[in-house]
Amino acid sequence: MRVVATRRLPGPAFEELGEVGIVPRDELGQSDAEVLIVANETVDQRTLGLLPKLRLVANFGVGYDRIDVAACRRRGVVVTNTPGVLDAATADLAMALLLAAQRLVVEGDRQVRAGAWRGGWADGTLAAEVTGSTLGIVGLGRIGAAVARRAAGFELRLLYTKRVRLDAATEQVLGVEWCELDDLLRGSDAVSLHVPRTPETIGMLDARRLSLLHDGAVLVNTARAEVVERDALVRELVSGRLRAGLDVFWDEPNVPREVVELPNVVLTPHIGSATETARYAMTRLVVDNALAVLAGREPLTPV
Fold first, then answer.
1. Of 142, 197, 209, 224, which residue is the catalytic one?
2. Which of 28, 95, 121, 162 has the fewest C-beta atoms under 10 angstroms from its C-beta?
3. Within 13 A of 59's CA, how many CA atoms are on the CB side?
């Protein structure tokens, strides 16, 4: 088979590849496959050694931090991803997590379901107001910018930080203010993370930086768990000082047991791109990249 995938991708475009070998990554053996389709799974020297005719690693997803791009390049193997088509879905979820965490939605849901709601509407815990608060966006790429556009509808003050500052015209259009990361953390009521997992970003939010967030601040992570120091965040959440909306975890699908029952944490199972529109479009890009390479053409979205 010319194409091997670690899973069957959603949507009708996948059928255009014809016969595809579906093999979990850990069960890959020697193959003459020219295209390997993965979902940000490990592709290392060993994997490449099993596929001597490989021409393309087509990643189902934007992040490709588990793919050894340098090793692929040395072997003449192209790596592609699926940027752009999942921005809206991920930004929507980031806003949903922010709203749920800041307005105590999950806690209220649990209270009602448990029959613990005894008072009237005027009783109970008071949440922080979302409208007029300050949101810090760490990483203002496609998804971060989509979050900024959505947050503007809630009349939020928007701070951002990124490696290269935007030009003044773009800042004005998005309604964002640039600042250093530490200052962003000090000045934000909520922080949303939108940076890739790289050697520079792993552990970027360590104990010192988490301590800069004020009591009751919300941390939303739909990017990569490793951007935040695990033990430091768990301590802050267990203490109740911070709130969080988390879609990504350090050892998926395992979630730190200390936070599973916490009322101040909203947890979702890595569903940032999990809409039919986004996932079908991701599959379309994977297939178009594969068909292009197999036909001897340039891929659409090389990394």
1. 224
2. 121
3. 24
Residue type, 170: T
Out of 15, 252, 258, 276, pick the active-site residue: 252
Query: Among this protein's residues, is 270 annotated catalytic?
Result: yes
Active site residue 224: yes
Calpha distance 21→38 (Å, rounded): 12
pTM over 0.70? The answer is: yes
Q: Whose structure tokens read 């093999």?
A: 23
Q: Do domains 3-84+275-294 and 87-267 have the same CATH topology?
A: yes
CATH architecture of 87-267: 3-Layer(aba) Sandwich (3.40)
Query: What's the fold here for domain 3-84+275-294?
Result: Rossmann fold (3.40.50)
Q: How far apart are CA 23 and CA 6, in angstroms?
A: 5
Read off the pLDDT of residues 253-298 as tens digits, 9 standing for 90 and up.
Answer: 999 999 999 999 999 999 999 999 999 999 999 999 999 999 999 9
